[in-house]
Write a structure and sequence with these properties.
476 residues; alpha+beta; Cytochrome p450; 19 helices; disordered N terminus
Length: 476
């Protein structure tokens, strides 16, 4: 396809790309609500690189070409704002990096970016493996756990301690995870037709539940901020991101230090986005390993070789405390572990779709996308495109050889988005994913409970709808 460029519709008559339509009102929208991934996959498979359809009166364009996606997210990103889904998320995230726009977003990113430099995040490796090892020590041979809840809890502990410098004190298990789920389902509801009407009726149960969840999350974040300000007054310096934000100065804008509301928005974004997406990615990885024992065996062979598992005797309580825990020096050697994680995020990208809204008319090949239209780009759809991946539904980590990496278009694989609005925590997520896979799989083998139903729950992120029940087997 030809390169995308911004243009004015006055020079072009609107000619819509091919796409689905129905004489029944909102039939496609109902299909999308019931199964958004299948709907987008069917559209992309049937109509190709660019397709058009309508949700009510809203014009929507699905882009399924990596070069066109690159144009939208990088070369012409200023012609777009974030779609309604992320704007709705401002109810919880405020003006954090995920939701903010324009100069304010660019300024905040300049302040925060240094804290996520790959060389700096290496210091978090010991924290990551310590929490992962503690989780493994709580388990017992033969027990069954919901591995999604386990991953949510552990990645929450890691992001809180490593990046925010605080221990999250919860009154009961999964309190934060449940609150997050309430918020995500609420946002999903608001994006549906007439969804905003729900928000205007405060007595509805769904509104009360969301407000309770938001108050809980706000209290945790504001407590983190207060703790840091108190430490600062006592002259205690901390090396985490929140301390960096407290010290941040932006001489160009002459705004001085961030106020508590600005801090709250950035911390809330990092606090939630920084653990939930990684937890999902790890859950799907462990599920895929349980379904592909040959891959799991090859992974364990690498762990034994790199980590040097000389002492393989299990402890008396049925755990494998004697196993060696990986360090930052091991990460570069865990090549197959990295491939496993990469392939898992190809099949189950934690963020499965990106939406943008055109500010001005935008030309794509022979089509003009009018201002105000929504553009969808789906990582899930692109990652399953047979044009770029042989047997795209197959879990095959060995596909990620140097030849494939060198020939793949940039946006045929983009689990963390890309461009100016790409995930700032990507280096952190890669490090955490590799270290946790290595720590867990060096000690435990997992068997999926065959009576447990596995189904996608595509909200803002790609969760397992019913959790993920696994029977644990200690490595001996």
């Amino acid at each position: 396809m030809k390169k995308m460029t911004s243009s004015s519709s006055s020079s072009y008559s609107i000619k819509y790309p091919p796409g689905p339509h129905s004489i029944l009102p909102n039939k496609l929208l109902r299909e999308f609500i019931n199964n958004p991934i299948k709907t987008l996959m069917d559209i992309a498979y049937t109509y190709g690189d660019i397709s058009h359809f309508k949700f009510g009166r809203q014009h929507v364009y699905l882009i399924n070409n990596p070069h066109c996606i690159e144009d939208i997210l990088i070369r012409n990103h200023k012609n777009f704002i974030k779609s309604r889904g992320l704007r709705v998320s401002k109810r919880l995230l405020g003006e954090g990096l995920v939701t903010s726009e324009g100069e304010y977003h660019d300024r905040q990113r300049r302040i925060i970016q240094p804290a996520f430099h790959p060389n700096l995040i290496k210091k978090y490796a010991d924290i990551m493996t310590a929490y992962a090892a503690n989780m493994c020590q709580r388990w017992q041979d033969g027990m069954t756990v919901d591995i999604h809840k386990e991953m949510m809890h552990t990645t929450l502990e890691i992001i809180s301690k490593a990046v925010l410098g605080s221990e999250v004190k919860l009154e009961k298990d999964d309190e934060v995870g449940n609150a997050l789920m309430v918020c995500m389902e609420y946002f999903n509801r608001l994006q549906m037709p007439f969804g905003e009407l729900v928000e205007k009726i405060p007595i509805l149960h769904v509104n009360k539940g969301y407000q309770r969840a938001k108050r809980l999350l706000d209290s945790i974040v504001y407590n983190m901020i207060k703790e840091h300000r108190d430490n600062e007054q006592r002259g205690i310096q901390q090396g985490d991101l929140l301390y960096t934000l407290l010290q941040a100065q932006d001489e160009e804008a002459r705004i001085g230090r961030m106020n508590d509301n600005q801090l709250r928005d950035e911390v809330m974004t990092i606090f939630l986005a920084g653990h939930e997406t990684t937890a999902n990615a790890l859950t799907w990885t462990l599920y895929l390993l349980s379904q592909n024992p040959t891959v799991g065996d090859k992974l364990y062979d690498e762990l034994c070789y790199v980590l040097g598992n000389n002492n393989k005797e299990s402890s008396s309580n049925g755990t494998s405390n004697s196993k060696i825990v990986p360090t930052i020096e091991d990460v570069s050697k865990l090549e197959y572990t990295e491939k496993v994680f990469r392939e898992s995020m190809r099949l189950y990208p934690p963020a499965w779709t990106i939406g943008r809204q055109a500010i001005n008319d935008y030309k794509v090949d022979k089509y003009v996308i009018p201002a105000g239209s929504i553009i969808l780009m789906s990582q899930y759809v692109m990652h399953h495109n047979p044009r770029y991946y042989t047997d795209p539904d197959l879990f095959y980590p060995d596909r990620w050889n140097k030849d494939l990496k060198s020939h793949l278009p940039r946006f045929s694989y983009f689990p963390f988005g890309g461009g100016i609005r790409g995930c700032i925590g990507e280096p952190f997520a890669w490090l955490e994913g590799i270290l946790l896979i290595a720590t867990i799989c060096n000690q435990w083998k997992m068997h999926h409970d065959t009576t447990h139903k596995v189904e996608l729950k595509p909200l803002i992120t790609l969760r397992p709808k019913y959790g993920m029940r696994m029977r644990l087997e200690v490595r001996k």
